[in-house]
Amino acid sequence: MRYQPKHDPHNGLLHFRASTQLSGYWRYLPSPDLEPYVEHFWTIEWDLPEPALRETLPYPAAHIILEPGIAQLAGVHTAKFSRMLAGRSRVLGTKFRPGGLRPFVRQPTSAFTNRVLELVDVFGEPAAGLDARALAHADHHAAIAVVEAFLRNLEPRPDSTLPRVRAIAERIASDRGMRRVEQLAAEFGCSARTLQRLFGQYVGVSPKWMIRRYRLQEAAERAAQSSSMDWPRVALELGYADQAHFIRDFKQLVGQTPADYFASLSSPDA
Fold this sequence. Notes:
With 270 residues, the protein is of the alpha+beta class. It is 38% helix and 19% strand. It is built from 10 helices and 6 strands; from the N terminus they run ββββββαααααααααα. The chain has helices at residues 119-123, 130-135, 140-153, 162-174, 181-187, 192-202, 207-225, 231-237, 243-254, 258-266; strands spanning 25-28, 38-56, 63-67, 70-74, 81-96, 116-118. It has a 6-stranded antiparallel β-sheet. β3 and β4 (70-74) form a beta hairpin.
C-alpha cells in the first residue's frame, strides 16, 4: 500500500485554504488488482473538544463508508456533503473511480445516485459486520486489507466498457476547458445520447453534471490557493457566458457567493 500523492490534500473539503495542514486524514492507493475500480482509500480520525462542521464538494464517485456500527454504500451525491464531527471516532472510506462500482452491482449506478444504503442491503451477507472486522485494526494497512479482501470476494465482473468510461471521466477531470457534452462525444466518437446512456449505467450522473461540477470545483480550488480573485475573469475562463450564471451555480453548490466564500477563507478563523 502506498500513500496517495497529495496534489489535492483536502480532496474537495470546503472552507480551508490549500496551505492549511489538516491532521487525522490519510489516503492510500489500492492494490494493483483493484486499481481499475478503486481510486483510493481514505481514513479520518478525530478527537474534538467541540463539534466541528465539515463540508465537501461532490465528486462523481460512490463510496463505501465504515465507522463504528455503520457500514454503508453512498452513491454519487449531486449536492455538497455536510457532516458534524463530534467527540472521538474514525471513518474508513473506499472511493470508487467513476464507473468503478458498476462491476460489483447488478443495477445501473444511477440507481444509487443521491442515496445512502446499508451495505448488507446491496451486497448481502458478505457485508455483514464489515465495519467491525475492518475497524478492529488500528493500523490503516490492516484495516484496508480487510476491505480489499471483501471487494475481491465480490468477484467484480469483467467489463470491457469500463476502461472507456474511465478515459472519458479522466478527460473531463483533466481538461477544465471541456465545456460541452457534444465536444466530449465527438472526441470519443459517439453521440451525445450514447454518452448520456453510458454515464447513466456506469457513473450515476450525466456528463453535463460532471463537466459543470469540475468547473465549480476549479473555482473553489483557485479561491483556496489565491490571495486575491478576479471573479469575472474566472467565470470567463471556466466557460461561463456571464458572471451572473457563474455566481448562481457557485452559490447553489457551495451555499455562498464566490466573493463571500473567498472572504470567509481570508478570515482569521477560516
